Amino acid sequence: MTSRFVRAAAAGAALAVSVGAFAACSSEPETTPDDVITIFAPQNAGEGQDLEENAFTKVLEEKFDVELQFETTTWDGTAAAEKRQISLASGDYPDAYMLIPWVDQFSSEELVKLGGQGVIMPLDDLIGEDTPNLTAAFESEPGFEELATSPDGNIWGIPAWNDCYHCSYPSKLWMNSDWLDTLGLEKPTTPEELRTVLEAFKTQDPNGNGAADEIPLSAAGGASLLAYLMNPFVYTPEMYANAEGTTPATLGAVDGKVTLQATRPEWRDAIEYVSSLYEDGLIDEGAFTQNGEALTAKGNSADGVILGSVAVMHPWFVNSELEDGRYTQYDAVAPLTGPAGGDAFWSAGGAGAAPGATFVITNRSSEAKQKKLMQILDFMVSYDGHLQAEFGVEGTNWVRPEEGDVALDETLEPNFEVVPAPSGEAFKNSWGPIAQFFSDAEFRNGQVTATDIYTPGGYERRLFEATKLYEGHESDELFPYWEVAVTGETATELATVQTNIENFVVQAGAEFVTGVRDISSDDDWAEFQQNLTDLGAERYVEIYQEAWDAQR
Q: Any signal peptide, and if so, which residues (predicted)?
């Protein structure tokens, strides 16, 4: 067994061990008075968010006669997940956790385990007359309640139901259209056409500064990059909240059979293509390791425009306030057509939601606190509460529609308009995506947006229209893992093997692309397959196959 394989296995095992240690560390947690509620939550300090002093926090404290205290983490998925694990394992955890699914959240397996250990409280009996908005949301979107129900039949937490059209196709590629025009090129439609464009970006000085400083293709973390580049060869989903291997992102379904995509020759072909781009210097060396801040620094480089294309959900990597207009230069490229066709990842029902929970109440919370926390959650699910929670102060951060306003989905009546905030103040008055517990399609798509998609006010419309390029390219190999319930001791077994497999495939994929492993070597490929077998790949597939068969 190679050292790199040992490290991957150890990392996965460490998570499983830490989850198992929660009960031993936290049987008698300390608590605070009933009028003081402690919450663990991610905080975007870079955009002015201070949850202790936040305007919406003050709204809640006055409305519910309570003091809210926060233990915060960042929006960096890896760091946030690690801090949450440490918080739980320490025994000194808060009354509740309120998370962001695309940063970090509790998996279904974690919920069942922590619930069985008594670390988190069941919410079933707390949902009813005192939570009319949540109850109504469950009734209007049955899938929301199904998503909230854990494999053991209990509701241990509430997930985020975010019916976000553009989020449903996260693996997009944004390309500099000005560079294409300068070089007389068209948007690529196949993997080889993409190679031609990237080579031109690298060698033909499209930014016109006489320096070879162009970065043809970049990304942050590599998830969107691999999914976009590999899907023309083999179905490669990009899942939400998978920083710790909490979703089966490596699995597909072929003719009713669960498959580990990384065992297929098509997966090897896909990685070989991506590796060849990297070897030729067409992919940014930092694409698999840099965070969003590093990518944004390149997008907003003071030396001028240096990014040719970026694989991310939406073009957040460029500041709209830059005078050179680079904010308007990036447009989405449709899925590429390769041996497997042009397939983009599609999420369940179009809702940006994943099994598990972003909100849980711990056993540190008294009955009075549990009731108050559910009332706070219910307020954030209500229409007016949602507007204040996610966007901030009426008249400052958002306004009611006026005559002539146009909704994002023009078939809907407009309902609100977000007022763009200056840089560094976007989350000063709101909890932002922490509060996205129930954003159905009518709520999201009824918002007023500018009709000019290249203005900050038209950003949502820009995403909405770009996503139409991806709709209709869904793969028939999608595995509907969210419909598959695994319970009891098998769920415990699955949690460990899934974490190990998922983390290892992500690591090995990056190693193959960057040359640490040689994808063209039959020996390296055979070693990779053996590594998967040693980690329990056959059992991983078997567990999901048996559970899926039982529910069909």
A: 1-23
